[in-house]
Write a structure and sequence with these properties.
This protein is an all-alpha fold. 73% of the residues lie in helices and 2% in strands. Helix 6 runs antiparallel to helix 7.
Amino acid sequence: EAQQLATYIGWLMFGVRGGIVAGVLFVLPSLFILSALTWVYLDNIEQPIMDAVLYGIGPAVTAIILFAAYRIGSKALSNNVLRVLAVLTLIVVYNFPMAFPYVVLSAGLIGFIGVKISPNSFTMGSHHGESKDSYGPALIDDDTPIPDHAKFKWSRLLGFAVVGVAIGVATMSLLSDPVLRDMGEFFTKAAMVTFGGAYAVLPYISDGGIASGWVTTEHMKVGMALGESTPGPLIMVVAFVGFVGAWSKEIFGPEALLLAGFAGASVATLFTFLPSFLFIFLGGPGVEATRGDLRFSAPLSAITAAVVGAILNLGAAFARNTLLPDIDKIEKYDWLIFSISGVQIDLIALVITIVAFIALFRFKVGIMTVLAACAAIGLTTVLV
């Protein structure tokens, strides 16, 4: 995750204060921007032009998720064992959506045990290609002595753990509204199972947000589009979920929806990223010591394979919602719906999805360009 990388770099170079400054400033602008855009979206959600834009964005988001699954899977699923694990995960989370944390734990256990039986089955290539550009010597490289603040000390580890837990508990105790407390607990859990970046945890956040009544599938498609097209890490979709959830629940009453939304976005952001800071400060000293050690990398390889299955499940859920219309969509866009072998299918949305995927996969078109083009197609299709 990009925010964790920013925090780690800040911590490695300047200690705890550097990590906090880097991590906070990496997400703070995105929190304000995404909150403002979410407010505009919710305040105009009944407008025909918004409906038309969302019609085009839905297929685009579906294509983006499926492309993300392909991109991660092509690097992570290097052998049949990992591919089977991804398929099994897809089957499990499709039938039991909220089982993802248990899937992560199970995958890690499979990797931990499996590497002792078949070491080659739990190795994978790097997720990052080597850069062709030269930026001169690094401030800190493999030959640089470990800074004093980055050396492992039990006393320091215990201190960070106590302070981090205390901040979380104290903040949670200040949340008087039950919706905000539920959000704090949920996003803390989500942070604990974030392996492999934003796309890894978005299926869990989507399922949990929908099950809690904070968002709908349509909301999540908009949140994904906003997250992909605004500055900051994609995981800031959590701010969108928190904003929409607190707004829809009217936690401060119908006259204070904007305040409620921003409170929800802030709580979701805080409790998503607080564990990240804690993990960096606790685990940073041990990171380099375990690089290349299969005892540690094998469970992560298995978890990454499971994450691919979870992302595919999210893509399938969005595709089902986009391409197989419900009664309301059939009534609203009846001229766009076709019946094939008795199944109602939105063929225009299907075409947009396929074209968007080809643009991403074959022609390497940027995500923002794809979103803008699909939104324009939606406007043209629905309003013209």
